[in-house]
Write a structure and sequence with these properties.
By secondary structure, the chain is mainly α. The chain folds into 2 domains: 145 residues, no CATH class; 454 residues, no CATH class. Helix content is 64%, strand content 3%. The protein has 31 helices and 3 strands. It has a 3-stranded antiparallel β-sheet with strand order 2-1-3. The two termini are 55 Å apart. InterPro entries: Acyl_transf_3_dom (IPR002656), O2_lipid_transport_reg (IPR052728). This is Acyltransferase 3 domain-containing protein.
């Protein structure tokens, strides 16, 4: 490979594509191979260059070498391909524009064993005249020009961060030194909302143990949230490692994903559906409790449900968005640290407002934008929230059958709309299928009508659990359908059969993903299934997974399988669960900073994936702690203080937390 690299240099120089000064310098670099001494700067430039694709060379040494300048050629392919050179400082970007063209074939090893590279290489060569797939950077100079100064927006965000930090510290001192009368005043109560001491106690306090010492079955949902966010991070680690950073084994990196060792990764596509299911369940269960406790329910109270929800989630959501939008470019450096702000916030300048109104999965042009990439989930969850109170009011106040009918209709809408979209765009089930293009993400992956089935099934579980708990407390049948389902779980064979069937259905969905990814086909189109099979699978997968979750968890939520409840209700899950919302928001930023700051390339394999996953997960949870203590909890405390009519001690935990649902439920 190194000889081909040298050949490419010679071809480019002899073609006189470079300026005379740049040609002369590169000629001296090549000549240093045969002319001693090797200690000259010219020979060092050659040593500090990456002699083959995705070898990043020695970035730091080259940047510090007199007369040298590190240059990176980055191809917009999957897996990512990069060529690193330590070249003469006199050379400019225009000198290198023809470096790989028409000699691109010398840089990319084309053979039948790597059809993915062959496919994209042909596209690259065809697009070479417009340079649409090749970017040339001088990373050190780029960082110096773009990332070494603060603009107005960065200064404003810095002031906000400093203000919140000082306020949190000052409030903590006030909690220690302030008198009881001062603390009970309006100003005192506001300050205590920001106290690190107060918020840390809340973070570390568990409500899992009841008075009799028995763990509430609902506490298992804390473990579900933590495991699901881990699943999300694991999936993103593998996908981003193979596509967003240069890997040494680029020729077979994507082929490794089809191995059975990665079977858990395929199921990661369903982790977000778990959050939707959780959100639907908790929204329903807590909403019914509150409405049944309220003798009068006005239009104003109904509208306040939406106000509570917006105020509970938006402050920390917007803080994370604006914080990383402003500062992410200052958090790293290295040969790949260029255009870093475009990775996760490419559309924030134009469409940040769409995140504020939770419509970023439709803006612009009915598609989706990339401002805080993972926020499409929040848009979907909020859109589900817009309709669920209406359904629940009809369920509670009018007729219980309306709720069940709504669940059925919503699931049918999800199945039919998803199948129709899959057929119209001829979508393949594999996320990385080259045949899908952008249509998979634009019109299928992030749209509420293709995601709503697990949420609706979670609502059905809420009906069942509330009905059984009310029956135990008041000996009253609240919902006949829900009562029949919950009563059936008293039979041991039905209970175990229900649990095992749900578990099997979930595993069928995961193993089906393995079958899809096992046969990538030519050009990684994943087309070994028939078109009809693809459409049917895409139409049913969200509903089937949500159904499996519901069937498996119903007996657990009703209090059976105590060994599962005891394990999943452990204290540690409760603490970690309080961090999951912020972890979800920031984990891709943490991952991007770590990946793009690497100065050497790794191999893409299971060992490195697991190592990176553990690192990203632990670091994300650690980084989430200050954001939770300084931003999320104070915002929640203020919201409770403003809208609570009764003193805090008279409020139930469920009432206080009724707006915290799904991934952000406490």
């Amino acid at each position: 490979m190194f000889s081909l690299f040298l050949h490419l240099l010679v071809v480019t120089i002899s073609s006189q594509a470079m300026s005379i000064e740049c040609q002369e310098e590169w000629t001296k670099i090549i000549q240093s191979i045969v002319d001693p001494p090797l200690s000259t700067n010219y020979s060092k430039m050659l040593q500090f260059s990456g002699g083959e694709l995705n070898n990043l060379g020695n970035y730091d040494s080259c940047s510090q070498l007199d007369g040298a300048k590190y240059v990176l050629f980055r191809y917009s392919l999957m897996p990512l391909l990069a060529q690193a050179l330590c070249g003469p400082k006199i050379c400019t970007k225009s000198d290198y524009e023809n470096f790989t063209i028409p000699s691109l074939s010398y840089s990319i090893p084309i053979n039948s064993s790597i059809p993915y590279i062959e496919y994209y290489t042909s596209l690259t060569i065809q697009a070479s005249n417009t340079s649409s797939s090749l970017s040339i950077y001088f990373p050190y100079e780029y960082q110096k020009d773009h990332y070494r100064s603060y603009g107005t927006w960065e200064i404003i965000m810095l002031i906000i961060v400093v203000f919140l930090s000082v306020l949190a510290l000052g409030s903590s001192v006030f909690e220690i030194l302030g008198s009881a009368d001062t603390k009970s005043s309006l100003i005192g109560r506001i300050l205590l909302c920001f106290s690190l001491i107060n918020n840390t106690k809340k973070l570390l306090t568990s409500r899992g143990q009841e008075k009799l010492g028995k763990t509430d079955s609902l506490e298992v949902l804390n473990a579900v949230r933590v495991m699901s966010i881990g699943w999300v991070i694991l999936g993103h680690t593998c996908i981003y490692s193979s596509t967003n950073q240069p890997v040494i084994n680029y020729s077979n990196a994507l082929d490794q994903i089809k191995d059975s060792k990665y079977i858990l990764i395929y199921g990661g596509l369903y982790a977000v559906d778990t959050f939707f299911w959780l959100s639907g369940f908790l929204m329903t269960y807590l909403f019914i409790i509150e409405i049944e406790k309220t003798s009068k329910f006005s239009v104003f109270a109904f509208l306040m449900i939406y106000v509570h929800r917006f105020l509970r989630i938006t402050p920390v959501y917007m803080f994370v968005l604006f914080f990383f939008w402003a500062f992410i470019k200052y958090f790293g450096n290295g040969p790949m640290w260029v255009d870093v702000e475009k990775y996760l916030n490419p559309d924030c300048n134009d469409y940040w407002y769409s995140n504020l109104i939770y419509m970023n999965n439709f803006i612009p042009d009915g598609k989706v934008n990339g401002c805080l990439g993972v926020s499409w989930y929040l848009a979907n969850d909020m859109q589900f929230f817009w309709i669920s109170p209406i359904i629940l009011i009809l369920y509670i106040k009018v007729n219980k059958y309306i709720g069940w009918l709504a669940v059925i209709i919503i699931c049918l809408i999800c199945i039919i709309s998803t199948g129709s979209i899959a057929e119209y765009y001829n979508l393949k089930p594999a996320l990385l299928s080259t045949a899908n293009g952008v249509n998979y993400m634009y019109y299928y992956y992030v749209k509420p009508y293709t995601r709503v089935a697990p949420y609706a099934l979670g609502m059905a579980c809420g009906f069942i659990v509330y009905t059984m708990r009310r029956f135990k407390e008041k000996n009253e049948v609240y919902d006949k359908i829900a009562y029949f389902i919950s009563k059936s779980q008293e039979n041991k064979f039905v209970r175990y059969g229900t649990f095992l069937f749900g578990l099997c259905l979930i595993n069928v969905m995961i193993f089906t993903q393995y079958d899809i990814c096992k046969y990538p086909g030519k050009n990684y189109e994943y087309d070994h299934w028939s078109d009809e099979g693809n459409w049917i699978y895409l139409a049913l997968q969200r509903f089937s997974y949500g159904l499996g979750l519901s069937i498996m968890f119903i007996p657990i939520l009703l209090g059976y399988f105590s060994w599962i409840i005891n394990f999943m209700g452990m204290y540690v899950w409760s603490v970690l669960a309080r961090l999951t919302f912020v972890v979800y928001l920031i984990h891709l930023y943490i991952m991007t900073i770590a990946m793009l700051s690497k100065k050497t390339s790794d191999e893409f394999d299971l060992y490195n994936n697991i190592r990176d996953f553990v690192f990203y997960a632990v670091l994300s949870f650690i980084c989430a702690i200050p954001i939770v203590l300084v931003v999320e909890m104070p915002a929640g405390n203020l919201e409770k203080m403003i809208f609570s009519r009764a003193p805090p001690k008279e409020k139930s935990d469920l009432l206080i937390n009724k707006s915290k649902i799904g991934i952000e439920f406490r």
